[in-house]
């Protein structure tokens, strides 16, 4: 297979300076690209001066993760795309076991490696850990990470297994599959667009896997820190959009109403902690959802599916009430 490692960049000079060397060193089988989202710093100049083997794709605007990758990938012809965050350090031989799996399994359309924390290297990282799932209420969770409970890597997820979604921090995806489902949904802008993409891939008959014999290290929050209210905005809004677009039947409206009630409880938690900017972010998320409601109803006609998407009824109940803190306890 021909392989393209594509790193989306927006004003990420320091991240590229820190993490790009490992990608160049350990990705000799691939062509490495930096897709720049109209940066205003000198990150492109840094790449051109210090990493001459890396190719530059210059996007005209900063369209976020979704549009940035859609624009960049439409120009590429490699068989396998790897969407890699700019704050990811890869390890030696990170590509070989994943590529081997794609070559031997024609049903495999997307995959992720083991994602460990770049600053606490014995622990899983929030963004994708050991592969993603979604509960019946639309809450995403991972093997190795349930909400803010992060597991240490003790070899418990060294397996290869099928998952529901693979993280956008390091997403391996076949070019043909990516284009068949129309790429990433640009209305998400950032956050949970990879879950929407994986949902459509599975509806289309594809298999998505976690491959524990490949490891990368993710800093996390490199472009939008976890404590930022804008991340709260995208996570709350995009969950509602994800459900409206993909869940079949009239129950989706009951589900969305219930999720909005739970969003209110989340706002109450922020209130008790004095984090008022996050309350406003949730309010903005709901109004933005209303503004996109009609547009996503049209998308819903094409993408909804009767496919089973949840492994458990409520990860919220099990985590906050039953005090289950690890994936294996769920």
- Report the radius of gyration as a whole number of Å: 19 Å
Q: Based on DSSP secondary structure assignment, what is the total number of beta strands?
A: 13
What is the count of DSSP helices, taking H or I runs of 4+ residues? 10
Low-confidence stretches: none
- What is the distance, rounded to the nearest whole angstrom, between the alpha carbons of the first and last residues? 38 Å
Kindly estimate the percentage of residues that lie in beta strands according to DSSP.
15-25%
**CATH superfamily label of the largest domain:** Spore Coat Polysaccharide Biosynthesis Protein SpsA, Chain A
**Main sheet characteristics:** 9 strands, mixed
| Chain-averaged pLDDT | 95
Summarize the helix and strand pattern as letters: EHEHEHEEHEEEEEEEHHEHHHH
Please give the CATH architecture of the largest domain. Alpha-Beta Complex
Give the number of domains: 2
- CATH topology name of the largest domain, in short, is Spore Coat Polysaccharide Biosynthesis Protein SpsA, Chain A
**Shape descriptor:** globular
* The CATH top-level class label of the largest domain: Alpha Beta
Approximate helicity band? 40-55%
Secondary structural class: alpha/beta
